From TrEMBL:
Domain called Sigma-54 factor interaction: residue spans: 1-83
An example molecular function term from Gene Ontology annotations: sequence-specific DNA binding
Keywords: Activator, ATP-binding, DNA-binding, Nucleotide-binding, Transcription, Transcription regulation, Two-component regulatory system
Protein name (Swiss-Prot/TrEMBL): Acetoacetate metabolism regulator (Two-component system response regulator)
PANTHER family: PTS-DEPENDENT DIHYDROXYACETONE KINASE OPERON REGULATORY PROTEIN-RELATED, TRANSCRIPTIONAL REGULATORY PROTEIN
Amino acid sequence: MVKEGTFREDLFYRLNVIHLILPPLRDRREDISLLANHFLQKFSSENQRDIIDIDPMAMSLLTAWSWPGNIRELSNVIERAVVMNSGPIIFSEDLPPQIRQPVCNAGEAKTAPVGERNLKEEIKRVEKRIIMEVLEQQEGNRTRTALMLGISRRALMYKLQEYGIDPADV
């Protein structure tokens, strides 16, 4: 831009003292929970709402989303959820459809006919997939995975054993 004459050279050198590299939000998934909770507090206060928490499933969806609009998109999603929500907790249903879609369509699971479905088996299948996805995002770190899922580390260890998931394989 300096060569093209569209940016002042002296200003360029003043600003060029320090180089800041800010990776996109999709590369900083461990920050999403902290940022989402910050925005939750901010917008709850600004809108005089008593929303105190984000459901673990909703947080998993937020963590899994690619955030093409980066932090501004996350801020807008949380603000919308706060304004539109009537309860004290933001659930996955309070999030925009494009954010809920990955869990619904992940793996392109086929829906069995009504008579062949077993709710408990379906819940376990979805729970196992979510645990595996978050575990992979957290590079096998069980403590961070439990935190992202909103469960204790002990509960996560039980689920890993129950589903036969080895974090070393992720």
